[in-house]
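[Automated response] Your request has been received and processed.

Submitted sequence:
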Amino acid sequence: MSQDSTLLDAEERIALKDYSEKAYLDYSMYVILDRALPHIGDGLKPVQRRIVYAMSELGLKATAKFKKSARTVGDVIGKFHPHGDSAAYEAMVLMAQPFSYRYPLVDGQGNWGSPDDPKSFAAMRYTESRLARYSEVLLEELAQGTVDWQPNFDGTMDEPEVLPAKVPNVLLNGTTGIAVGMATDIPPHNLREVVGACVHLLDNPKASLDELLEYVQGPDMPTEAEIISAREDIRRIYQTGKGSLRMRAVWQKEADTGDLVVTALPHQVSGAKVLEQIAAQMQAKKLPMVADLRDESDHESPTRLVITPRSNRVDAEQVMQHLFATTDLERTYRVNMNMIGIDGRPAVKTLDKILDEWLKFRTVTTRRRLQFRLDKVEKRLHLLEGLLIAYLNIDEVIHIIRTEDEPKAELIKRFGLSDVQADYVLDTKLRQLARLEEVKIRAEQEELEKERNKLQKTLDSATLLKKLIRKELLAVAEAYGDDRRSPIVTRKEAQALSETELVSADPVTVVVSEKGWIRAAKGHDIDPAALSYKAGDSFKFAVRGKSNQSVILLDSTGRSYAITAHNLPSARSQGEPISGRLNPPNGATFEGAMMGPDEQRVLLASDAGYGFVAKLADLSSKNRAGKALLTLPKGAQVLPPQAEVNVGQDLLAAVSTEGRLLVFPVSELPELARGKGNKIMNIPGARVQSREEYVLAVVALSPGQSLTLYSGKRHLTLKPADLDHYRGERGRRGNKLPRGFQKVDRAQVTEK
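Generated structure:
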């Protein structure tokens, strides 16, 4: 190998790191600038621009006959966009779907997809298309020198770098795209609102964002669903160019049937998918208040989803709030107004920046259009001037043409014509030299001179140019504008119903056995002790409540736990161990249970003679290990809780094992969320530790109730009047019971 070839190889070599870095950077810039992001001028990505331009070149205007979509796609990928035909066709389909684009650019005939399944469109060999009327806003001035052109991918023809849009289409139709390291999500807007803001900015170049927001209320999707984002959030989107937007379906309750009917879905939400989501909840028994579900959408009512409640007592508002929180009936959209500016660089732009930059773009295109027309007018006037000279000297001109070998040079020399004028005179047909032609030439000259003066005046005056842009903007708004489709409404945030709220409130009795097995029986009229139990097990305690409530269990260490009642095993079985659902401390046993509404008061006490009143809501714990609730003095044990206490009216009766009874109002005890509580009955701590004496029972008595005490086979019933003898201050020893009741086994409340 020669030395020269070795040197050449060394020069061609490049470090893999440098090569891959450059290649990836080139690819990134291509994706950002030439594929994924829209241009601020016309609001189109390159593929969309090429589709619209190719269709215009095929003569597929809004008034033309439809042509097969395959023809358009063939032109697009063959002449301008060397990518897959399916990618080009999909971009074209999107521009034809009225539920995807606020102002569609393509008018389609055939199956172009549906809101339920936007990708269910027919193949391009079946569908036909032409440009929509709105596309004229982008194309009308294309041939008037308004924009720069660039060679296509193989250099055989030119294509426009950007289309001369008459309105800020980047906001009107919005777009989504994922580039390398950046993305764009621009929501659609209302044409009249955006034009109003543009006109205001033209008249007041220093207008603030808040002034512009008086015109632009917010995005306007191609659906009647509500935009429920707060005004401050919408303002923040336009102030920063980023944020999120929430949309919610529109529904109503039909007076005659009570059905809940959804009439509009959020942008790009499928009705079929929403029905699937609701049906899945119904099958999982997480939506017991809904009886039936059907789709009654048709040509007249494109969206009509019917939800039938189980009864007319079902709170419709609550059901819909739950569905908004758990299905696509409410949806959040990301907003990221990232686009390629007139400087050719991608950037996230605020609303005032977008409008200001677009107006600069529009000013340039309008100025170029006027200049293009002015040049044409001046060229025509120049030709007419030469033609008039020839007409006034017609005989001499004819003589020169007939006799001279080089008539063009002689005409230039004789009449002082320019090269272009001489050519034009020589190309003129004899019939145009008739007697009336002078009148026509002078009339055309006069008209063109007026137009030239007007064009020149407009080009020389910034005020007149603004006036023209303003007039053209308002004309477009008049021709293509429509009312807002997506109302902006302030709504409270949707809350999903909790698991307990979704359960019907049926009466249940929860039964716990001595061995710690739990189950639930329907109704309150069952005898828990008569149920069947495992060998060696027996009934311990039961509590009555409703299936949508939690069972609050209290263990021997003073900890409380919560178990939902609706999913407990049936009383027809022998239940399941509580330890399978909870993690109580080793050796702990369950001593009582409570059920009821959150605001219900309960009485908690230890046999050391301490206790307090608590709210049921404070006892609930989602933790399997429970929460520390009742602090036990040394040697003390938990007493069964009193599940329903009326603090203002009830009396508390405390009975000790030594036959002492103390009665005082429950209101003398504090209301706590946890702790030891205050002294109920005075029993020396040493006697409690040695178990010589302790509180046997603490009972809450409602007005009119009696207290029955049992000692062996004997019992004593103390009526309300009898209880007065035992009333005393909280924390005293209490009075002695009659002979025979020095040792009390249990205490029970009896009705009047």
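Summary generated for your ticket: Residues 501-596 form one domain. Residues 376 and 470 are 24 Å apart (CA to CA).
If you did not submit this request, please reply to this message.
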